[in-house]
Design goal:
The protein is α/β, with parallel strands linked by helices and about 375 residues long. Helices cover about 25% and strands about 25% of the residues. The chain folds into two domains: about 230 residues, Alpha-Beta Barrel (TIM Barrel); about 120 residues, Beta Barrel (Lyase, Ornithine Decarboxylase, Chain A, domain 1), CATH 2.40.37.10. The strands form three sheets. An eight-stranded parallel beta barrel has the order 2-3-4-5-6-7-8-9. It has a six-stranded antiparallel barrel with strand order 10-13-16-15-14-17. The structure holds pyridoxal-5'-phosphate.
């Protein structure tokens, strides 16, 4: 690593987050670690830490991702959420990858495979992305699968909303129950519905024994630990807003103390002083309002930095970003800042959640948008 700009992945925090989640939500037999998108940008290598911390099933979105993850653990089961072509079932079998039945047509396409594969059925309860939507199709699969090399190991669905006091969550849950009403769920080894947010916001479901942890493992519970003294007021406000909407209860508070696993650092490589009414950046975007110190920091668009990143920290002090380029950012600093000073882009109180809200984006998207030009350094 020659340029001193990098992503720091704190595996101790990752491990603590997982242990913390499992301690607070102990009722499950299967804790899936969702590691699609190169483990949400942290690097597939972190699966080792996840497994040590208690994750006992991994989940990815494609066979390529499953095979990449397989390099780090030869035994852990890996569920592929996405479509795997019939021609690729041998590779899935060799890598011990569990398939998702994403539609009845897909099931019909692969059911005569000679490979012994575990499968989970995905139910489309309202996302309308993938999954079985019709009860008769689900029941046919469950009947027909017995005569195939496929073993039905699991059934699941995915929620389209955060489920925070919203009727859509309730509707999806009701749809899941309706679709499976003629099925003995106890006969299916793994039933999993919740992702991170659903887990922390909702009470457990007596028929589910698995949860799929994504963003929470990486330190984002989005559960804004509301201080106890503020809770009654927040609760009251929400109740008033939702009066008459008849939605199921939501847990506003929890004891999770999750820490962000990823931080991003760079360094100052150049400083210039400018006089009043000088300009900085493309399109002369910044006009100085007095004598100013401008630091050039060695990180930019090609690393995943966008105009939604507003501040950095240098020597504990916060400074605004005033211009962004492919490889640099310009920061309005003061005379305390020196060339080669370390710059915190994310960390020490600067959060990707704030960047996300600046750009009406999601933390999920931002995490996977930090490019591989920034080496991942593991702590
Ligand atoms: C099917 C499925 N389950 C679980 C997750 C994890 O979600 P989260 O990161 O919100 O916990 C995802 C993430 O995209 C998903 O697609």
């Amino acid at each position: 690593m020659y340029r001193n700009s990098y992503v720091l992945v704190d595996e101790k925090k990752l491990s603590n987050n997982i242990k913390n989640i499992m301690k607070n939500y102990p009722g499950y037999k299967y804790y899936f670690g969702v590691v699609k998108g190169n483990a949400y940008g942290h690097g597939d290598i972190v699966v080792k830490t996840m497994i040590d911390a208690g994750i006992n099933y991994l989940a990815v979105s494609s066979l390529d991702e499953a095979i990449s993850v397989r390099n780090y653990d030869k035994d852990i089961p890996i569920l592929c959420f996405g479509y795997i072509k019939k021609d690729d079932l041998e590779a899935a079998f060799k890598n011990n990858v569990t398939l998702t039945i994403i539609s009845y047509d897909y099931f019909k396409d692969i059911k005569d495979t000679k490979f012994k594969l575990k499968v989970h059925i995905k139910l489309n309860t309202g996302m309308n992305r993938i999954g079985i939507k019709k009860q008769d199709e689900l029941e046919s699969i469950i009947k027909e699968i017995k005569d195939t090399n496929l073993t039905l190991e699991g059934i699941y669905t995915h929620f389209a909303t955060s489920g925070v006091y919203d009727a859509y969550f309730d509707m999806q849950l009701a749809k899941f129950k309706e679709l499976t009403s003629n099925i003995d769920l106890k006969k299916i080894p793994i039933v999993h519905l919740y992702n991170s947010l659903a887990l922390v916001k909702h009470n457990g479901l007596e028929f589910a024994n698995g949860v799929r942890l994504g963003i929470a493992m990486y330190g984002f519970s989005a559960s804004a630990n509301i201080p106890d003294n503020k809770l009654p007021l927040v609760n009251l406000k929400r109740k008033i807003k939702l009066k008459g909407k008849n939605v199921s209860p939501v847990n506003l508070n929890n004891n999770l103390k999750l820490e962000k696993v990823m931080s991003i650092y760079s360094e100052v490589i150049y400083i210039t002083e400018i006089e009043p009414d000088e300009f900085v950046g493309y399109n002369a975007i910044h006009k100085s309002s007095g004598h100013e110190y401008i630091a050039t920091v060695s990180i930019g668009h090609a690393d995943g930095i966008t105009s939604a990143f507003k501040y950095v920290k240098i020597n504990g002090k916060t400074y605004p970003i005033i211009a962004i380029y492919m490889d640099y950012i310009s920061v309005l600093v003061d005379k305390d800042v020196k060339v080669l000073d370390k710059v915190t882009i994310i960390g020490d109180g600067l959060s990707l959640s704030d960047v996300a809200s600046n750009s009406h984006d999601t933390v999920h998207h931002l995490l996977v948008s930090i490019t591989n030009r920034l080496p991942r350094v593991y702590k």
